[in-house]
Amino acid sequence: MALRKFKKLMVPLSVLFIAAMLVPIFLKIGESIRAGKNIQKNNEVIAEVNGHKIYRLDLERGVLGVKNKVMQIKSMKAQQGIEDKSEVPDDIVKKVILGELVSNALLASSAEDLKIKASDKEINDKVNEIKAGMPNGESFLNYLQSMGIANEKELKRMIKESIEVTRVLESQQKAHKLSDEDLKKYYEMYRYTDFQDQTFEQVKPTLEDYVAKEYSDLIRNSLIEKQREKAKIVFKDDEIKKLYEETVKPVAEKDGYSFKEGLMYTRILMMVVSAGTEYNEELVAKVRESIQKDLDNLVAVGKAAKEKGLKASPDFVGVDELRDLGKRYFVYLVSSYNPSDADLKKIYDTDPGKYDIRHSVGGYVVGSFFDPTEADKEATKKKAEDLKKTLTPENFAETAKKVSEDPGSKDQGGELGWVDSSTNFVPEFLEAIKTAQKGQIIGPVQTEFGSHLIYVEDVDPANADKKKVSHILLLPKPSEASRTDLIGRLQGLKKELDEKKVTWTDVIDQDKYKYEVKEVFKKIYENSAVPGIGFVEEANRKLFASKVNEILEYEFNGGYFLMVKTNEVPYKKRTFEEVKSQIRNEEALKYATEELDKLL
Questions:
Q1: Cα–Cα distance between 402 and 381 in angstroms, integer?
Q2: What's the pLDDT tens digit per position in 94-108?
Q3: Distance of CA 340 to CAs 188, 195, 248, 577, 591, Å?
């Protein structure tokens, strides 16, 4: 989306990547704190932020969540034959998690200032929702403790804080709204890229939503910093206090603005965890240098904005004030760009056809791929059972090369490598090999992919949970009966649509019309992809050649679809006067980007 053109100015401070690892209600965190007595022992208070308690268990849960994520990524890479030796020092993980916990506590304390409070009903409803998703036969307390949560009281505290923090941020986003005048500037910038043929009033809700998302990090960060200025933060543990103090020390400073070391630790963690970057002192130095460069850029752009008389919103403080100025400066550059008609005409004359209205259509595509029925799956299972009778450890690999339908392992004789409970495989597969012995061929195991025959080649002597396995996958094929059923259903739907008994909107919106593909498209061009079907020349040609509202049946690539063209815009040559405003807009965006590049 063109709305993102000046994102390079906006250095992200968001730790949503890290926060996602902190969601404790759904996170299994390992054996080290599974026993209830350990949870109770570790549930001591390590800090208070304006009276809001932070528990040692909160910190441990977050740290183990990050480590769990690292293990998952490494396991996935290992399956692809990629060795990942990246590690993150424990103190860096602790600093990032501790910083986020303090930030959340600051936001939670601001809920009191704003008189925001989660009701008992909301909290209990969420608890009941979690209970409804519990495994059958497991007690609620055991279930909570398996996720590192001491008891129901602790769970309710976490839910309460989550609801209130969310509400605080929502209230701040609603309070920070751009005026219609400012929104119109955004509209004018992107009306020819994102909002063609739409009025300002039509796109105003979209723009408001965009602005809310664009400013969400700035609002969150500034609110946290404002709260931190006046907060009473008390640490019960000297080591924890030292870790926190290191996160709020400046890592980069210029002209009264600064970035804190917490940002550096977060970036390092993200680079190591998501990209597998090796942690070393060189990496630390590079991240530190990049943060200083980011600050230099923000200060330079902020200075240029102030020289033009622009002012940041009072909602923002520190570097977020500079980010706001950067956004305003970009809008100013676009709005103030004023080329002559002669200059614009030169651009038009270079390639006048570029501005013509292309032939396009809008419409709907509904349909499904031919999926196997339960009977088809049973037939595949029976085929796997018969195959298993012929298998031995000696012929397994050769048989896999001949008959397995897993393209990722077929040519390697079904080899999947070493697998354990942390491996990113479907649960049915992992459960099946849990009790299997070395040399055993088990199955068929039914998963969403098909029927698996699994050969356990070896078991790690140091870890019985870790096994080297190969498999043969047989995919269930749709029978003629399943094909006939889908075609019949879609032909029946076509009849209802032709007779106006249902509308296309009904089919798209209502759950009773169960089709894999339910696409609405406003505009596609000749020789482009048909939504839900893809780059298929025949489908595109048929759609463009049809009459408006003529429903077409189309079978392709193992599926059956209904297509309809509901509107059509014919090709139209456009004169310079008709496109002058669009060219000026395109050049203004280029100019603004180039002016920013000069400062960065």
A1: 18
A2: 999 999 999 999 999
A3: 18, 25, 51, 13, 14
